[in-house]
Amino acid sequence: MTAQTSAPRRSGPARRRGTPPAVTNALRLLGLLLVLGWCLFPFLWMAMTSLRTGSVALTDPNILRGPFNLDNYQQVIDQGFHFALRNSLIVAAATTAICIPVAALAGYALARLPLAGKFLILAATLVATLFPPVALVNPLYQMYLELNDWTGINLLNSYAGMVIPYVALTLPLSIFILTTFFSGIPREIEESAKVDGATPFQTFLRVVAPLAAPGVGAAAILTFVYATNEFLLAFSFAPNDLNVQTVPVFVGTFERVGYENPIGQIMAASVLVSVPLILFALVLQRRIVAGLTSGAVKG
Fold first, then answer.
1. Cα-atom radius of gyration of the chain, to the nearest Å?
2. Which residues are CB-contacts of 72 (< 8 A; sequence separation ≥ 6)?
3. Cβ contacts of residue 145 below 8 Å, gap of 6+?
4. pLDDT per position in the chain (299 positions), as tens?
5. Which residues, 6 or more positions from 74, have their beta carbon under 8 angstroms from its beta carbon?
6. Residue 191 and residue 115: Cα distance in Å, rounded?
7. C-alpha pair distances (Å), 222 with each of 72, 100, 160
C-alpha cells in the first residue's frame, strides 16, 4: 500500500496586496488640485494685480500684500474700455453670424453629397489654417489700400476690415467640426423626413441642424472666442480709432498715467474682458465637449 500525499488545495487566486483605494483617490485628488492650481494661478495673479497700484505691483512680488483698491478699474473705464468691449462684441458676433451658416452648409455638403475627392477637399480646406496670420498682414493691408484707390471703399479702421479675414481664418476649423458631426447623424432620419414631403433644405434646417446643435455650438463658441481675442490683424487694420478698436488692441496700447507703468490698469482691463468669456464657456462647456468629441470620433 502506497502512501498518497495530497497537495493543499487553493480555494482561489491569491489576493494581491496593492495600494488601498483611499490612498489612490487621495493621490488623484492631489494631482488634480496641483494641475488646477497651476492653471488658475495666472488668473489669480491677474485679478490680484488689478487691485494694486502700478509701482507696488512691479516691485513687490507678493500678490497678497496691499493696499488694494478699485482705482485701476476706474481709470480703465475713464479711458473708454466700454467702447472697446462693444467693438469686440460686434466684430465677434458678425464673424460668428457669417462663419457658422457658411460652415454648416459646406460641412453638410461634404458629409452627404456624393462628391469625388471629399477627403482632398476637406484636407485642402484645413491647409488654410497652416498659414500664420502674420504672413497675411502685409498683403491684406496692400489689398485694402488698392481697393480704396479703385473703388473708394475703405476697409481700414472699419469692422469689415477685421471681420473678412476673421471669417477666412475660422471657416476651415468650423467646416471640419461640422463635417465630421454631420457624418455621424444617421441617414435614415433624413430619408424619413423626405418621405414625409420635406425638401432637402427643409430637411437640413428642421431635422439635421437641431440634431447637430452641439457641433454648431462648439464651432460658434470657438469662432466667437477667436474673434474676441485676436490681436495682430486688429492692431494692423484698426490701431487708433476708438470707434472700431477692439479690446486686445486697447489693452496692448494702454496709455500710461505719467511715468507709472500701467500694469495694474492692463490687468484690470484683462479681468473685465476675461470674466464674460469664462462665464460664457462655463455655461456652454457641455456643448463644447460634445461637439469636439463627436467631431473627433464620428465619420
1. 28
2. 50, 51, 53, 264, 265, 267, 268
3. 156
4. 455 555 555 554 555 566 788 888 888 899 999 998 898 888 888 888 888 876 677 777 777 777 788 888 888 888 888 888 899 989 999 999 999 999 999 888 888 887 777 778 888 888 877 778 888 888 888 999 998 889 888 888 889 889 999 998 899 888 988 888 888 888 888 788 888 787 878 888 888 888 888 888 888 888 988 998 888 888 888 877 778 889 888 888 776 655 567 788 888 888 888 887 777 777 766 665 555 555 444 44
5. none
6. 19
7. 30, 11, 20
**Cell triple for residue 90?**
460686434
- Please name which of 99, 124, 94 lies closest in space to residue 216, comparing C-alpha atoms: 99
Residues 6 or more apart in contact with residue 206 via CB below 8 angstroms: 193, 198
Sequence-separated (6 or more) residues with CB below 8 Å from residue 46: 267, 270, 271, 274
Q: Is the CB of residue 231 less than 8 Å from the CB of residue 273?
A: no
Give every CB contact of residue 204 below 8 A, 6+ residues apart in sequence: 108
- Residues sharing a CB contact under 8 Å with residue 203, sequence separation 6 or more, in sequence order: 190, 193, 194
Q: Which residue has the cell 490701431?
A: 239
In order, the DSSP letters of 82-101 are HHHHHHHHHHHHHHHHHHHH
Do residues 267 and 50 make contact, with C-beta atoms less than 8 angstroms apart?
yes
Cell numbers at residue 143, please?
A: 489689398
Do 288 and 221 meet the contact criterion of CB atoms below 8 Å apart? yes
Any idea which residue has 512680488 for its cell?
61
